[in-house]
């Protein structure tokens, strides 16, 4: 088995920053465009849907930034713990919409931050396996500070994204860029937390596990 590659810290920071900006730029752009249209619109009735669009886009931008703060940010000092209740709130805000439902079966407890960061990153990967929406379910594996996770995604045309297994293992076949850095980063966190990640197809579902 190939050893995971080491990525320069500056390169990792640049790629993660690019990924976060990519996730946030769409709703922020919609806000800017909406405000420009609002400035030119004279009909008060016509302003209502524009204001609704701005409000919705602002909510999306906020949810994505709150999620990124926990999934990619420092979230406290070395050895810090994160409340799974807080993680559930940001995950639902980031992922749930009229196409995707998230069932969170984890207890409200404190876990080491790398375990929680890994969980949020695995949720991103799980959601990418059901591009047309569907159901996501998260269950605990074990308990306490050594808790692992099982994520199940079900939806139309569910599939394991190309190259994601190699990226999780830290052995990509092609140069890394902002489009693929997230699963690579998830693999880095898993190794730092002492967890092994797998992704498999089980019937119509895609299942990700992170266990010691």
How are the SSEs ordered, and which strands pair?
Elements: H1 9-40, H2 44-71, E1 81-83, H3 84-95, E2 100-104, E3 110-112, H4 113-128, E4 134-141, E5 148-154, H5 164-169, H6 181-193, E6 196-202, E7 205-211
Parallel strand pairs: 2-4
Antiparallel strand pairs: 1-3, 4-5, 5-7, 6-7
Helix pairs in contact: 1-2, 2-3, 3-4, 4-6
How would you describe what is shown here?
The chain has six helices and seven strands; from the N terminus they run ααβαββαββααββ. With 212 residues, the protein is α+β, with helices and mostly antiparallel strands. The chain has a single domain, classed as Heat Shock Protein 90, CATH 3.30.565. The relative contact order is 0.14.
Give a concise summary.
This protein is α+β, with helices and mostly antiparallel strands and 212 residues long.
Q: What labels would you give this structure?
A:
single chain, 6 helices, two-stranded antiparallel sheet, globular, 212 residues, five-stranded mixed β-sheet, Heat Shock Protein 90, alpha+beta
Summarize model confidence as the mean pLDDT. 92
CATH class membership: Alpha Beta
How many DSSP H or I helices? Answer: 6
| The CATH H-level homologous superfamily | Histidine kinase-like ATPase, C-terminal domain
Distance between the termini: 19 Å
Helix content: 40-55%
Radius of gyration: 19 Å
- From the 3D structure, determine the CATH topology: Heat Shock Protein 90
Tell me, briefly, the overall form: globular
List the strand order in the largest sheet. Answer: 2-4-5-7-6
Output the helix-strand order.
HHEHEEHEEHHEE
- Compute the number of strand runs: 7
Number of domains: 1
Main β sheet profile = 5 strands, mixed
């Amino acid at each position: 088995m190939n050893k995971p590659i080491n990525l320069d810290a500056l390169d990792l920071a640049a790629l993660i920053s690019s990924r976060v900006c990519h996730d946030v730029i769409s709703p922020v752009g919609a806000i800017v465009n909406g405000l420009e249209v609002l400035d030119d619109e004279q009909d008060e009735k016509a302003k209502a849907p524009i204001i609704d669009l701005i409000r919705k886009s602002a909510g999306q931008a906020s949810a994505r930034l709150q999620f990124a703060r926990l999934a990619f940010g420092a979230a406290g000092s070395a050895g810090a713990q994160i409340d799974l209740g807080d993680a559930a709130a940001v995950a639902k805000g980031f992922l749930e919409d009229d196409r995707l439902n998230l069932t969170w079966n984890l207890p409200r407890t404190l876990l080491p931050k790398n375990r929680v960061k890994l969980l949020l990153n695995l949720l991103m990967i799980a959601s990418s396996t059901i591009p047309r929406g569907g159901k996501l379910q998260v269950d605990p594996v074990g308990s306490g500070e050594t808790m692992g996770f099982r994520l199940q995604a079900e939806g139309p045309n569910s599939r394991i994204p190309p190259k994601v297994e190699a990226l999780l293992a830290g052995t990509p076949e092609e140069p890394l860029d902002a489009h693929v850095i997230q699963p690579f980063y998830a693999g880095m966190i898993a190794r730092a937390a002492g967890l092994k990640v797998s992704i498999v197809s089980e019937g119509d579902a895609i299942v990700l596990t992170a266990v010691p």
